[in-house]
Amino acid sequence: MNVNKIVLAYSGGLDTSVILKWLAEQYHCPIVAYSADIGQEEDWQAVVAKGMATGAEKVIVSDLKKEFVEDYIFPAFRANAIYEGSYLLGTSLARPIIAKEQVRIAGVEGADAVSHGATGKGNDQVRFELAYIGLNPKLKIIAPWRIWNLNSRKKLVEFAETHHIPVPVTKEKPYSSDENLLHISFEGGILENPWNEPDEAMFKLSVSPEKAPDKATYIELDFVAGNPVAINGEALEPYVLFSRLNRLGGANGIGRLDMVENRFVGMKSRGVYETPGGTILRIAHRDLETITLDREIMKIRDSLIPRYSELIYNGFWFSPERELLQKTMDETQKTVNGTVRLKLYKGTCIPVGRKSDNSLYQESFATFEEDNVYDQADATGFIRLNGLRLRIQALQNR
């Protein structure tokens, strides 16, 4: 493959540091190392310094936190996205925004190729590359893990030492992790045996439910058109609001998940996740919808959630079908305005109150007390008509 310049999605870790040097040796062209700040804890000055020392022509760090919340997290949560009933798509939502910025930088820098550090076994290779294709199909894609012979940590370390790439002298984590504003994921190592319970010391964003406060925390979350806009009456920008939800959830032990999921490439994978703010947001959002969405609209919308979520998980964020479903999901959110009161307590998030000017709940109709708006005798014909096919079936069976 003839390549003039490459933009590498670069984290500064062992894998992408080795890839940076390997690309330079293999393709003999300038490499731009690009890192996306999407809310993870990182010493960005150190990342830049290491990238330059490893041979990058330039190291670019893009602050994408605001865009990540507003254009990826919030749209997905307006749709109540959830994969296989549990996973709130923290990694899946991060990959398209990273790839989009990488493609933009390639255009600015005059690069004709992009590269990433995802392995040939996981979902991320698919997510990155489908995004590249969907945004600029002319770019050449280099996936080192699928073509090189450095197929073990031992070989990576040996390559790094040979090329004087700093390898952190720390106790190796018995798992791998990936962090962003929405969540942190843990997989591999000791977690590959699904019978092993995660080590409590592993968790980063939340305290254990057992160590959470003995007193419940109550919060009120305001929504406009399906988006959260205020906590306890204080209007907040999306990034600030979501960061605060993360802190509130983490302090109360909320958002931990341990699951075995089905990867797009065909294998099952065990993952452990912390998604404190996202867990609160989804529970509150769905609860507000119970009083603001029409019953039949909710049924149709809910039937689309698995497909919408699967598209995101499989890497089709920039597909026409995901965009079509997004418009449908967002159309349902016009009336999702109001406030939800939540009780946060030892790993649980329980809605305890909800109100809205768009509420379809009418106490005058639902009351068990005397009313002047509902004739209970109407239910007789309703039941008879709905039971007609059952009556016919029963007569036939006799």
What does this structure look like?
By secondary structure, this protein is α/β, with parallel strands linked by helices. Helix content is 42%, strand content 19%. The protein has 13 helices and 14 strands. Strands 3-2-1-4-5 form a 5-stranded parallel β-sheet, with helices on both faces. It is elongated and about 85 Å long.
Supply the number of helical segments.
13
CATH-level-2 architecture of the domain at 176-293 and 336-353: Alpha-Beta Complex
Oligomer: single chain
For the largest sheet, list the strands in their spatial order.
3-2-1-4-5
Distance between the termini: 75 Å
SS-based structural class?
A: alpha/beta
Q: Overall 3D geometry? A: elongated
* Top CATH class of the domain at 176-293 and 336-353: Alpha Beta
Rounded mean pLDDT is: 95
Looking at the structure, the CATH topology of the domain at 176-293 and 336-353 is Argininosuccinate synthetase, chain A, domain 2
Main sheet overview:
5 strands, parallel
CATH superfamily of the domain at 176-293 and 336-353: Argininosuccinate synthetase, chain A, domain 2
Radius of gyration: 25 Å
Strand fraction: 15-25%
Q: Could you list the spans in which at least 5 consecutive residues all have pLDDT below 50? A: none
